[in-house]
Structures are given as structure tokens and as C-alpha cells.
């Protein structure tokens, strides 16, 4: 399925079978779920009908996304071969129509007398493809589909000799369908990327020996070994060992969390330093990542599908246009004995006036221009529906780590308790040399920036969650948490006050000690992006409210939010973020901006999801738009571009419908005939296209940083 309307066609078709109930089609996960009384309708008949509509179908191997009793629902996955988009049927169709149009144009230049015929092959090729789908949809209960609209428009154009226009219409429609195909495939890749976070195998401990088994086979109560560097294979509790675990894939927390016996760990998180034995508390089907996958799928399914404007309008426009054209052609001769040739001619002209070429182009032409302008700025939007929605938002929810902040801690403050600061920093850097811990990397980066040479260290050892120690120049140097340092020797009163002050500012503080004597303090924090404050102000100027949703602790969240001037909700897990998005969405359309896996459900649930370009693949795939340059000010730029695009769409629709209304009247009364009708339709198309091209000159407002 390439667009949400496909889902409605399938649901309608299946609903016409006797014994089919509780029909649900999830467009994003490509799953059709329904209850079927096979005494009334065999399952094979349903599958055959779906294939007639042009979709592949196969049983779902593991119906994890389908609610209901196991085995009580007939679950079918609407499938297509996994292949590059350019090898697909629609890509080949677009290439063939395009090649025929180019060939026709070349022949028309060489032999002008054949101008009427040279574009006919291209038009007929598109008509055969979409006409068959239109007929199948009509037989299945959807007579006024977008394919039917395009088929009628093409037949009308061919009937009055406008074969070149008919060819252009089917070509542009094919390109639009192809783009939707590509966007739909990329969106679905997000769920697959989520599933890849959990390792396929686990080391289950049996009789004191670790044996590799499939992670999906783990049961509650099993004991598994998690080695340093391994991803945690299941939700559970630490049964033995101490280590630090990187939970950023789940919580967004930028600093690894110390874990000891009894602590909970999440599937998909990464063990950083020491081996852990973990007791499984949730089966694979209900671990953290599986729940996030379900949240994403449910949020996407619940999101109101942005139906294309033309398809919504066609339900009324198509039957009325065809009926009026038919009445004009036959009613006067039958009722008052008028001349048949004259009124058939007017009916054909009216059909051309009704041909929705300009209307079909009005929205995609503006969208194409808007997307092109955005791409030049590094604003990647996945489709016209998302671009339209962005302009209507009234609130933006930001993740903190990697979105409003740079995503990597930096040294913000140094305080030497004895001796020079450079000496203290140099000792700390020597101890942290080779460390992969974010705090250690921050200290090393600061030492490198200050030009401090690294001294050799030996006998290094880590105390998980507490300190790192090494011998430097013959002295035992420790870099540890304030609580650990205070346990070794009391901190001076001034130092303790400084630690409390820095921690209240959302900073992580480490104490540097030499042979048991505290010699200095180092504060580290993931700092806001340079343009974050300016980006929040720019949104405020557009009348858009900003709020920060973070998995970090409340103290850190408030410190960052206070500096940027926005509201904050902290300590949130993925389901909490989802709840906050739902509350905002009840008031007005809302955008979610994030970069982490933990943001994926909220990105999907929001009216529109926006991912930072430097974020995870899951966030980028789940989101409707991405800021490739990772600038906060680009959120406001995207809103401004979307509003300009919406304005252009409204102008185009007014032009297309306005000209048609005028020529509808003049054609019926005989003032204008076939050629003026051709000019009216072509003229409207040209005007709509030129107006859409104006968007290419759109200029983004400059925003001062700071």
C-alpha cells in the first residue's frame, strides 16, 4: 500500500464479503486483520479479491501487532518484494511513459501532422494501468477512486484530441504514486530498525555454563550473561555484578547509569564496563523495545490519515462532472430536439473543462516547490501531507539530549582545591586516557583544547559507577563521584557548597584526588546547541509554544529549559512522552522534535514528527521530517515554509476551480467551444504551475543566534 486511501479500498472490498467482521487495516505495518466465517466466504476468495486490487498478500507469520484472541483473527500481511524503489512496477511504468512522451515530442517536431497521434501511446499506457485498477476498485465498492478520476480525465482529453495533455496527466500521476511508494517504504523501515536493537541471540546460563540461545526463546526467570560491550538481550534485574549501562536508546539519558544487584535493565541498552548476570523479568514479546514498536505502530495507526485533497474532492466532483457533461450532450437533443452534433460537441468541451488537470497539479506542484526549497536549506520532509501539517501546528515538543543540546557532555567548570587548574586537569585526563565514558571523553577533549600533554598512567582500574583510578607520576590519582570521594575523605566546606551549586545547575561533578587528598572539582554538562535559544524565540514569534520532554532528571531538565526559556517535563519514559504528546494534541496540532529511539513513539503520535539529522536511524525513519543540519532554528524555518506552501496551495485551488466555473457557464451557453475549453484547461494548468514555481524564490527569515 502506497497511501492511506489504499487501506480504505481494501477495507471496503473485504467488508463486502459475507462473514467478514471487525476489519482493520494498518497502513503503516501493512497488516489486514479481520474475523471471517469461512462457511460463508472462503479465505481464498478474500485473498483473490485483494490481489485483483493490485496488492500482494500473505499470512502474517507472527501476528504481534494484532489485538484479539490468539488464532481468532485471520491476519494477512499486504506484502511486496523487497527491492529498490527504482526496480518496482511503478518506476518502470513512469520510465516507459516518460520515454514515450519524449519520443512523441521528437516525432511531432519532425512531422507536425502527426502531433495528435504521437502522444497517444504514452496516454494509453497510463490509462490501461490505472484504468484496470479503477475498474477493480469500482467492482470492489470504491467507484470514485483517484484512479477513476484520472482515468476519466485521460479519456476525456483523448476524446477531444488533447493527447499531449492526457500523456502529461498520467505521467505526473505516476510520478506522484511512485514518490508515495518510496516514502511509505522508508517510513516502514523505522519499525524494522527498532526490532534490530535487540540482539538475536543471548547467553543463557544453565548449570553454571553460558550457552548461546535465540533471544526470543528467553523466559521469565532465565539467567543471562551480559558481557561488556553487549546489548542487553531482555528486560530484567541484575542478579550478580556491577557495571554501567548506556540506556540512551531507551531513556535518552546521555550519561551511563550505574547498575548493581537488584537494579533493573532494559532490553536494547548497552553494557559498558563489567560483566552482568541478569534475571529475565519480561518475555521477548513484551520487552522494552517490543513495547516501543507497538507504541509506534499504534500511534501511526491512530493518526488521522492525511487524505489527498483531490481524492477527497473526487468523491463529489467526479460523478457530478461526468453527469453534467453527459446531460449537456444528450438532454437538449432528447428533450427539445436540438442538434446532436452541437450538443455532443459542447458535452465533450464541458468534459474537458471538467478535466481536473489543473486541480490535480494544484497541490503537488506547490508541494514539489516547497520540498525543493526545503531541501536546499537541509529540511527533509517526507511527503506533502507532512509539509501541510507542519504549517498548522501550534505547539512543538522538544527532546533534550541531542536535540536542544549537542548530545555530548563538555567540561563547563574547573576548580582547583590545591595547585594550578592545569595540573589538576592534566592528572584527571591522564587517568581517563583511553576511556569511552562520556565524562572521560569530555575531560580529555578539554585537556586537548587547553594544550595539556597527557602523562603516562599505569595500574588503571575502574570502580563502576563510582570512580576511575590510576598511578600517575608515582601517585595514586582518582577521578570519582562526590559521594565516593566524600566516603574516602570529607570534602572541604567550600568545595561541598560548589558541588551542590553546580549540581543544581544540572551539571555532573567529579572530584579529582591525589593520594587520598582532594585537589580539584570538574563540572560536565551536555550544553544547549548554540542556536537553541534563538530557535525557541523564533517559534514564539510565529505563535508556536515550545515545551521540552526529557528522560533526564528534573534538575538537569529545569536547568537547560530555564536557560532557553521554555517549559519542561522531565524524568519521562517513552510511554510518558507519548502521554504528554496526547495531552498537547488535544488542544491543537503538535510537532515532536527528537533524535533518539526513545522518541520514536512520540514522533509517530504527534501531528508531525521532526528528527534531528544527527539522530538515530530509527528517529529519522519514524519522523515525518528531518533537519539535516541539526539546527534548532530550522524548526521555525520549516513552519514558515509550510505556511507559505499552504498559502500557495489555496491560491492554486482557487485558480483551478475559478477558471473552470467561468468556462463551465460559457461552454453550456455556447459562448465558448472546444478550443477555448482546451485553452482554459491548459491555461489553468500553466497558471497553477507558474504560481507554484514562485515558491522556489522563497527566502527564509534570518534568525540571530544567542
UniProtKB/TrEMBL annotation:
Keyword set includes Manganese: no
EC number from the UniProt entry: 7.2.2.12
Domain HMA: 1-58
Protein location: Cell membrane; Membrane
Chain ranges passing through the membrane: 91-111, 315-336, 348-373, 653-671
Class of this enzyme: translocase
Keywords, ordered alphabetically: ATP-binding, Cell membrane, Membrane, Metal-binding, Nucleotide-binding, Translocase, Transmembrane, Transmembrane helix
Signal peptide span: none
InterPro entries: ATPase_P-typ_cyto_dom_N, ATPase_P-typ_P_site, ATPase_P-typ_TM_dom_sf, ATPase_P-typ_transduc_dom_A_sf, ATPase_P-type_domA, Cation_Transport_ATPase_IB, HAD-like_sf, HAD_sf
Catalytic reaction annotation: Zn(2+)(in) + ATP + H2O = Zn(2+)(out) + ADP + phosphate + H(+)
Pfam family, one: Hydrolase
Ranges of compositional bias, category Acidic residues: 237-247
NCBIfam families the UniProt entry points to: ATPase-IB1_Cu (TIGR01511), ATPase-IB2_Cd (TIGR01512), ATPase-IB_hvy (TIGR01525), ATPase_P-type (TIGR01494)
UniProt family annotation: Belongs to the cation transport ATPase (P-type) (TC 3.A.3) family. Type IB subfamily.
Record's protein name: P-type Zn(2+) transporter
Lineage per the UniProt record: Bacteria, Pseudomonadati, Pseudomonadota, Alphaproteobacteria, Acetobacterales
Amino acid at each position: 500500500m502506497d497511501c492511506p486511501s489504499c487501506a480504505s479500498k481494501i477495507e471496503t472490498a473485504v467488508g463486502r464479503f459475507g462473514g467478514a467482521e471487525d476489519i482493520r487495516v494498518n497502513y503503516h505495518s501493512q497488516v489486514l486483520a479481520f474475523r471471517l466465517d469461512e462457511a460463508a466466504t472462503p479465505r481464498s476468495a478474500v485473498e483473490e479479491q485483494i490481489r485483483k486490487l493490485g496488492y500482494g498478500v500473505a499470512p502474517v507469520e507472527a501476528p504481534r501487532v494484532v489485538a484479539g484472541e490468539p488464532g481468532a483473527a485471520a491476519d494477512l500481511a499486504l506484502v511486496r518484494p523487497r527491492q529498490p524503489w527504482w526496480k518496482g512496477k511503478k518506476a518502470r511504468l513512469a520510465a516507459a511513459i516518460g520515454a514515450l512522451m519524449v519520443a512523441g515530442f521528437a516525432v511531432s517536431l519532425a512531422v507536425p501532422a502527426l502531433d495528435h497521434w504521437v502522444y497517444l501511446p504514452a496516454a494509453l499506457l497510463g490509462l490501461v494501468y490505472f484504468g484496470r485498477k479503477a475498474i477493480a476498485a469500482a467492482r470492489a465498492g470504491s467507484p470514485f477512486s483517484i484512479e477513476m478520476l484520472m482515468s476519466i480525465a485521460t479519456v476525456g482529453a483523448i476524446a477531444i484530441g488533447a493527447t499531449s495533455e492526457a500523456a502529461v496527466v498520467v505521467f505526473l500521476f505516476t510520478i506522484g504514486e511512485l514518490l508515495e511508494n518510496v516514502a511509505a517504504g522508508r517510513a516502514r523501515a523505522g519499525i524494522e530498525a527498532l526490532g534490530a536493537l535487540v540482539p538475536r541471540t543471548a547467553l543463557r546460563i544453565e548449570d553454571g555454563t553460558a550457552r548461546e540461545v535465540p533471544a526470543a526463546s528467553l523466559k521469565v526467570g532465565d539467567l543471562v550473561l551480559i558481557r561488556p560491550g553487549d546489548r542487553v538481550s531482555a528486560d530484567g534485574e541484575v542478579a550478580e555484578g556491577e557495571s554501567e549501562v548506556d540506556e540512551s536508546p531507551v531513556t535518552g539519558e546521555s550519561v551511563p547509569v550505574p547498575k548493581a544487584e537488584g537494579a533493573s535493565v532494559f532490553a536494547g541498552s548497552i553494557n559498558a564496563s563489567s560483566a552482568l548476570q541478569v534475571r529475565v523479568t519480561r518475555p521477548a514479546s513484551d520487552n522494552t523495545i517490543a513495547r516501543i514498536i507497538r507504541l509506534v505502530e499504534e500511534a501511526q495507526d491512530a493518526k488521522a490519515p492525511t487524505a489527498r485533497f483531490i481524492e477527497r474532492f473526487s468523491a463529489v466532483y467526479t460523478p457530478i462532472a461526468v453527469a453534467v457533461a453527459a446531460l449537456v450532450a444528450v438532454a437538449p437533443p432528447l428533450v427539445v430536439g436540438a442538434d446532436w452534433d452541437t450538443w455532443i460537441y459542447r458535452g465533450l468541451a464541458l468534459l474537458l473543462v471538467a478535466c481536473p488537470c489543473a486541480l490535480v497539479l494544484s497541490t503537488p506542484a506547490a508541494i514539489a516547490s516547497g520540498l525543493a526549497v526545503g531541501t536546499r536549506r537541509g529540511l527533509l520532509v517526507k511527503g506533502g501531507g507532512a509539509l501541510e501539517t507542519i504549517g498548522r501546528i501550534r505547539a512543538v515538543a522538544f527532546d533534550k539530549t541531542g536535540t536542544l543540546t549537542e548530545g555530548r557532555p563538555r567540561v563547563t567548570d574547573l576548580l582547583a582545591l590545591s595547585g594550578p587548574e592545569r595540573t589538576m586537569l592534566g592528572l584527571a585526563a591522564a587517568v581517563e586516557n583511553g576511556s569511552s565514558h562520556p565524562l572521560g571523553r569530555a575531560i580529555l577533549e578539554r585537556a586537548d583544547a587547553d594544550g595539556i600533554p597527557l602523562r603516562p598512567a599505569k595500574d588503571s582500574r575502574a570502580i563502576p559507577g563510582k570512580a576511575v583510578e590510576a598511578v600517575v607520576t608515582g601517585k595514586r590519582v582518582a577521578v570519582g563521584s562526590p559521594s565516593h570521594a566524600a566516603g574516602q575523605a570529607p570534602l572541604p566546606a567550600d568545595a561541598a557548597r560548589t558541588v551542590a551549586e553546580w549540581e543544581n545547575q544540572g551539571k555532573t561533578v567529579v572530584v579529582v584526588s591525589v593520594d587520598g587528598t582532594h585537589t580539584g572539582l570538574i563540572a560536565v554538562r551536555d550544553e544547549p546547541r548554540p542556536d537553541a535559544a534563538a530557535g525557541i524565540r523564533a517559534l514564539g514569534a510565529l505563535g508556536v509554544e515550545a515545551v521540552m520532554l526529557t528522560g533526564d532528571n528534573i534538575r538537569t531538565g529545569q536547568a537547560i529549559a530555564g536557560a532557553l526559556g521554555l517549559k519542561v517535563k522531565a524524568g519521562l519514559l517513552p510511554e510518558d512522552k507519548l502521554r504528554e504528546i496526547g495531552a498537547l494534541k488535544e488542544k491543537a496540532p503538535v510537532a515532536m522534535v527528537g533524535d533518539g529511539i526513545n522518541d520514536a513513539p512520540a514522533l509517530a503520535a504527534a501531528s508531525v514528527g521532526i528528527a534531528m539529522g544527527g539522530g538515530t536511524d530509527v528517529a529519522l525513519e519514524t519522523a515525518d521530517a528531518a533537519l539535516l543540519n541539526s539546527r534548532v532554528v530550522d524548526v521555525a524555518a520549516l513552519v514558515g515554509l509550510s505556511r507559505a506552501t499552504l498559502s500557495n496551495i489555496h491560491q492554486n485551488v482557487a485558480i483551478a476551480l475559478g477558471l473552470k466555473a467561468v468556462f463551465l457557464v460559457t461552454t453550456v451557453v455556447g459562448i465558448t467551444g472546444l478550443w477555448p475549453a482546451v485553452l482554459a484547461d491548459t491555461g489553468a494548468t500553466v497558471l497553477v504551475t507558474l504560481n507554484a514555481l514562485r515558491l522556489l524564490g522563497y527566502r527564509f527569515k534570518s534568525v540571530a543566534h544567542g
